[in-house]
Write a structure and sequence with these properties.
Number of domains of chain A: 1
Largest interface: A-B, 19 and 27 residues
Mean pLDDT of chain A: 94
Oligomer: heterodimer
Radius of gyration of chain B: 19 Å
Shape of chain B: globular
Structural class of chain B: alpha/beta
Mean pLDDT of chain B: 93
Distance between the termini of chain B: 46 Å
Strand content of chain B: 15-25%
Order of helices and strands of chain A: HHHHHHHHH
Order of helices and strands of chain B: EEEHEEHEHHHEHEHEEHH
Structural class of chain A: mainly alpha
Helix content of chain B: 25-40%
Helix content of chain A: over 70%
CATH class of chain A: Mainly Alpha
Low-confidence stretches of chain A: none
Shape of chain A: elongated
Chain lengths: 227, 256
């Protein structure tokens, strides 16, 4: 057997692929479901936190900044392991899926908060003055005038960050979430062959490449439309 | 203190009145006690060099700048103090900014309707009708669907004026409304202001448009170093100013 044949037999073994494709496809649905939940929860919570921060209520702002900095500083894997293996010791049992969703959702919320906050502060002060001078209150101005402009500005970095964090659903493997990577590594150890990992890689590319391309498109579109 | 007898004429309440207004930034006092009243339907121009405090004074009138001390009254009602309904008063004080400050994410019509809907709680149809009437007054009804970025500076400023007058304010504040415009676009904005005056709008204008001030203003207030140096009808100031600072300023700016 030549080296190339060995490479094919290891990474592109047709027999192994056919046998384990169905279980990996099940993992695809788990990854998609978890990713969607993370994005919806993380972005919504992050935007909410950034808006709360705009009111500049000192104790709340300290809490938000500490939360955002901690979540951005800690490796998500550390948090996932701490919560999944630590909480049962105090009597709290959470499913691995829930732990993965909550931790990554909070991490995305932290990054979203920082990104949207940067957007809110980048909107021209004259926009606040114009709205307030017509009698629109602080909350109305924030929600109807400032936030829409801030969100437009931050859609490209926000999309990039959302992709980076949803990819981390692969970390769920270490606590037994039956996602793409988990199904693939299980199949790999049963078959003694790396082809399931190849399928996993292809599945990730099919899932995330369109999003990466879309984020580039968004970026170009928003840069061009900036006045 | 002031004896009643000094009130020679029956004093109608001024639309806008500023009394002993002081404003400091830290240790630096930029307004040293301004007293100014704008009568109903009057157009008052505030002239003075950059840094004389005229914009700060104007921005205190709707509390975009917080006065350090002093009182400001809108139709006799105090707008200074902690317990006033500031948003409620601001809806009755229109403001036009040097940099227009239109909402770039909304089209022209919605720039005008936003406060009508959010503050005056008008329904969609009523707000639209009022916005179109305001845009008609500034000659831009045809641009209702355009976005601010598609308009010239002069058009943007006229939309900003429409946004303010749609609220039917008791007084309009203009903060250097033509300073950011190309010279050939200034005339349109001044034309709109002239029509507002003809319709009886009360206006307080900070501007460097000397020719327009001389022709259109009822009264000119000249400020220097955070104080009102003198005030009077345009012709009196332009031809017979009492103070040297006023004469120097006006002669330097009217030569052109």
């Amino acid at each position: 057997m030549t080296g190339f044949d060995r490479f094919l037999a290891t990474f592109f073994n047709g027999e192994v692929i056919v046998r384990y494709l169905p279980s990996i496809l099940q993992g695809v649905w788990v990854t998609i479901a978890c990713s969607l939940l993370i994005v919806v929860f993380g972005v919504a919570a992050g935007v909410l936190l950034a808006c709360v921060r705009a009111y500049r209520i000192a104790p709340l702002n300290v809490a938000i900044v500490v939360f955002a900095d901690m979540m951005r500083a800690l490796p998500p894997l550390v948090l996932i392991l701490m919560v999944y293996f630590g909480l049962p010791n105090v009597g709290i049992m959470l499913s691995s899926f829930l732990v993965l969703f909550v931790i990554l959702g909070l991490v995305l919320a932290a990054f979203t908060e920082e990104i949207v906050w940067a957007g809110l502060t980048a909107v021209d002060k004259g926009q606040w003055e114009a709205a307030r001078s017509t009698g629109i209150g602080f909350t109305g101005t924030l929600l109807q005038v400032i936030l829409p402009q801030a969100l437009r500005m931050v859609i490209p970095p926000l999309t990039n960050r959302a992709i980076a964090i949803t990819k981390m659903t692969a970390l769920g493997t270490v606590i037994g979430v039956p996602d793409i990577l988990n199904q693939a590594t299980t199949a790999q150890s049963f078959s003694g062959n790396a082809s399931p990992l190849t399928i996993a890689a292809i599945a990730y590319v099919i899932l995330f490449l369109p999003l990466v391309v879309m984020s580039r498109w968004l970026e170009e579109r928003f840069v061009r439309h900036r006045r | 203190m002031a004896p009643i007898t000094t009130l020679a004429q029956p004093s109608a309440i001024p639309t806008l009145e500023v009394r002993r207004l002081h404003k400091s930034y830290g240790a630096l006092e930029v307004l040293h006690g301004i007293d100014l009243a704008v009568a109903t339907r009057e157009m008052v121009f505030v002239l003075g060099r950059s840094g004389s405090g005229k914009s700060t004074m104007l921005r205190c009138c709707n509390r975009l700048e917080e006065p350090s001390s002093g009182d400001i009254f809108l139709e006799g009602q105090p707008i200074t103090g902690k317990r006033v309904d500031l948003d409620g008063l601001r809806r009755r004080i229109g403001m036009v900014f040097q940099s227009f400050n239109l909402y770039p994410h909304l089209d022209t019509r919605r720039n005008v309707t936003l406060a009508l809907r959010m503050v005056l709680k008008l329904g969609r149809d009523e707000a639209d009708a009022r916005a179109m009437a305001a845009l008609e007054r500034v000659g831009l009804a045809g641009k209702a669907a355009s976005h601010p970025t598609e308009l010239s500076g002069g058009q943007q400023q006229r939309v900003a004026i429409a946004r303010a007058i749609a609220m039917e304010p008791a007084v309009m504040l203009f903060d250097e409304p033509t300073s950011a415009l190309d010279p050939e676009l200034v005339g349109d904005v001044l034309g709109v202001m002239r029509e507002l005056k003809a319709d009886g709008m009360t206006m307080l204008v900070v501007s460097h448009e000397m020719g327009f001030a001389r022709e259109a203003a009822d009264r000119i207030v000249f400020m220097a170093d955070g104080r009102i140096v003198e005030e009077g009808p345009p012709e009196q100031l332009f031809t017979a100013a009492r103070h040297e600072a006023t004469r120097t300023f006006l002669s330097r700016h009217t030569r052109q």
